[in-house]
Structures are given as C-alpha cells and as structure tokens.
Amino acid sequence: MTEKIAVEVEKLNAYFGALRAIKDVSLDVLEKKVTALIGPSGCGKSTFIRCLNRMHEVTPKARMEGKILIHGEDVMERDPVLLRRDVGMVFQKPQPFPSMSIFDNVAAGLRLNGMRNKAVLAEQVEKSLRDSALWDEVKDNLDKPGTSLSGGQQQRLCIARALAVRPSVLLLDEPCSALDPISTAKIEELILELKSGYTIVIVTHNMQQAARVSDFTAFLLLGEMIEYGVTSRIFTNPGNKKTEDYITGRFG
Amino acid sequence: MKRQIQEEINQLKAKILHMGGVAEDMIRFSMKCFTERETGAGDRVFRSEEEVNRLQIEVDELACRILALYQPEASDLRAILAAMKINSELERVADQAVNITQTCTYHLFKEVPVKTMMEIPRMAAIAQEMIKNSLDAFSRSDVELAQDVLKKDEEEDTLKSKVLSEVIGMIRRQPSQTNQLVDLILISRNLEKIGDHATNIAEDVIFMVLGKDIRHHAQ
Fold first, then answer.
1. CB neighbours of residue B130 within 10 Å
2. What CATH fold (topology level) applies to the domain A5-94+167-247?
3. Residue A248 to residue B71, Cβ atoms within 8 A
4. Are B75 and B113 in contact (CB under 8 A)?
5. Confidence bin at A178 (pLDDT 50/70/90)
C-alpha cells in the first residue's frame, strides 16, 4: 500500500469523570483523504476528534488513555498549542472572532505565532481565503467585521482561519449543520478540493454528506467503533448489522 | 417505529411480483398458442403486454420517487436497484412471449403443420419455472433459490442446442418446410432468452441480498 497513515489511534479511551465516552477505539486515518465519523448523538464522534488535538482534556474532569500518533509523533508528548496549530479544527456553528475584521480573523493565528511582516501576512491571508474559496466574495471588504458575512461565508472564514497556520490535519465537527443547502454544497466542494493538501476528519449527522465527501467512514455507537471501511462499501454493503440499521434509519 | 421507506419498498416489490405473474402467464399462453394453435391464447398475450408495459412505467416512477425522497443506503438502496433492473428484465420477458405468439399466429399457422417438437414446450416449462423461482427468490430474499435458477439455465441452453441440430436435420430432409422450421429455431431462441432474463433476475437477487455482484463470472 502506497498510502501513508497520518493519524494512528490505538486503543483510545476517553472519559468524562466516570463516564467512558470512547471505548478502545483503534483507527488509522490515511493522509490526504477524507474520513467521516458517523453515529447517533452521544456516540462519541466529537469526543473522538477532540482527542486528536487534545481539546478533550480542556473539559473539566475529562481524560484520555491510549495512544494517538500524528505523523508518527505521540500527541501527548507534544506542546498542545503547537499540536492544535498542526491539527486545525472547525466547529458546528461558525464562530468568527466577533470584534475582528475578515482580514484580522484569518491573520489572528499568524499574529499569535509572532508574524509581524505585513506583506507576508497579507499574502498568507489571501492564500488562506483563496484555499477556503472565499477570496472572490470578500476581497473588496477585508476590513469589514467577520460577523457581517452570511453563515456559510462565516464558516468558510473559520476554515480560512484554521488553514492560515498551515495545519496538516483538519478536523471538521459538523461544519454544515447550521448552514443552508447552497452553503453546505460550497463547503462540501471545498472539502473535496482541500483534500489534495490536507488530511480531513469530518463528523457529520448527514449520511449523504458522509457518502459524498469522504473516502473512508467510521461508524461509532455508544463509544465503540462498530465498523470502519471504504465509504462506497459502507453505504452500499455494510458488513455489520448495526451499521446497516443505522444508515438505513432503523434506529438513531 | 415503522419506516416509511419500507412501506414504499414493499409496494415496489409487490408491483414487480405482479408484473412477474403477468409475464409468467404470457409465457404459458404463448405456448398454448404454439401447441394448440389457439388464437384466443394469442390475444391474451397481446393484451397482457399492455399491462406489463404500464407496470414497467409505474415501477420506474415509484423507484424514482423513493430514490428522490429518501436517498436510500445499503440494503434499501440495493433493493431499489434490483427492482429497477428486474423491471427491465420482465418487460423483455414479455416481449419474448409476444414474439413467440407473433411467430405462431403470423407464420406457423399459415404453413403445413410440422411434427411438434417436444423440446420446445419443455423449454417453455423450464423458462417459466426459472422466472417463477427467480421472483420467489426476490420476494423472499432467498439466495439458494436464486442459485438454483442459475444452474437451471444450463438445461435450457442444452435443449436449445438440441432443437437447433434437430431442426437443421429436418430442413435438410424437408427443404420445402424451411420457413416454418426456421420459426421453430426462432421460438427456441425466444425461450432461451427468457431463461437468460431469469438468470439476470437471479443475479440481481444475489446482489440485493449479499451485496455481491456475480455477473459475468457466475458460480
């Protein structure tokens, strides 16, 4: 196999106090592929991706066990701030920094990392906005507040903000669930474009979205990974009865 | 909780089974037309064809509706794909029955009768059984029965070859009856085709149940 593994998860267990939200999940995420996580609410999808960039441990009483290697490096041995720069995240609800302009929203991460050169900043901001397919819509209004954009544009702004610090892995936690169908289609198109440069893990409740954008799909149920495989197979001929029942709407 | 999509898939299956029943009758009446030279049986075949054509459109419309409304996945998706493919196969089965009937009424009846070849009604009985079993397999998701249908096709092919070689011999012996003897070849070819359609249906059933595509390398 020529494909490289970007994220290696081995026997991951995640807890909220006494509650075990992720149970012994092992999974390899391939580099520059889109991997979708599906499963009913509360199955641990979001908790799983929050473990990948150590956001999980930020929650009070939360902890994790097991091993996560990103490009071969153990995430627990990395500086969480640097790790989160390498493993970007976009949330369900678009959250641009409310007091900042479009430009500053994208530049925020770069400035935090000490970037002061205005020309380089401008270049990086433009590249990120182009990569997130927003540039043409905002290039004449870069000084307007990020919150003045539509929901779909705000979400692409958040993706641009995540891309600005040049991550290798992008975690998308239900990025379209608050968006209308047109904005959703744009984000999906963007995901397909971005995968040539990034490894993407997307959590989604929309089964058709998982089928459309991902190369691999993992189905989680009550914290356990029930099935993981090539998306086209999972959605036409799943190997596990529980996966079959979930994707055909028999429960969940 | 009852799934709405299941109700609609059940309706789709019911329509296919109804269509299959009509197609089976058409094979039976086309043979009646052949063996008994009964024109009433022929009229029934022509009337039934209209019903099959109407059902074919209804099945397609319903399948299209389910795909658009529910965006089905996995076994639901496979059931609908299978139904759509079986739909076309049955419409062609009906066409073959019509062809047999046309050959009988427009050609054979006008010629001197030939000795009835027993292989032809035998082929028709096998073809009818194959269609029936492939649809039972569809209705019950019965892979074993579908596999029996695949095996039966060999028998049909052997009979077809037998008819062909016998008829060629007959043409040599009685060249004046060449026209109607060629008709016998055409009819055996129609029946063999019906067997092939039943085989395709059986393969669709195996795909529907197991998600395994066995076409072109059938076991």
1. 28
2. Rossmann fold (3.40.50)
3. no
4. no
5. confident
Task: Note whether A2 contacts B: Cβ–Cβ < 8 A.
Answer: no
- Pick the closest to residue B88 from B14, B210, B197, B196 (CA basis): B197
Q: Which residues of B touch A236 (CB under 8 A)?
A: 73-74, 77-78, 211
Residue B128, token pair as written in the block? 């009818």
Model pTM score? 0.83
Burial (0-12, 13-18, 19+ Cβ within 10 Å), B110: exposed
* pLDDT tens profile B140-188: 999 999 999 999 999 999 999 999 999 999 999 989 888 888 999 999 9
Chain A CB contacts of B75 under 8 Å are: 244, 248
Q: What is the ipTM of this complex?
A: 0.72
Cβ contact, residue pair A237, B211, below 8 Å: yes
Summarised one tens digit per residue, pLDDT across range B115-149 is: 667 899 999 999 999 999 999 999 999 999 999 99
Structural domains of chain B sorted by starting position, each given as residue range(s) with its CATH number in brackets = 4-210 (1.20.58.220)
Q: Is B4 on the interface with A (CB under 8 A)?
A: no
Domain boundaries, chain A: 5-94+167-247
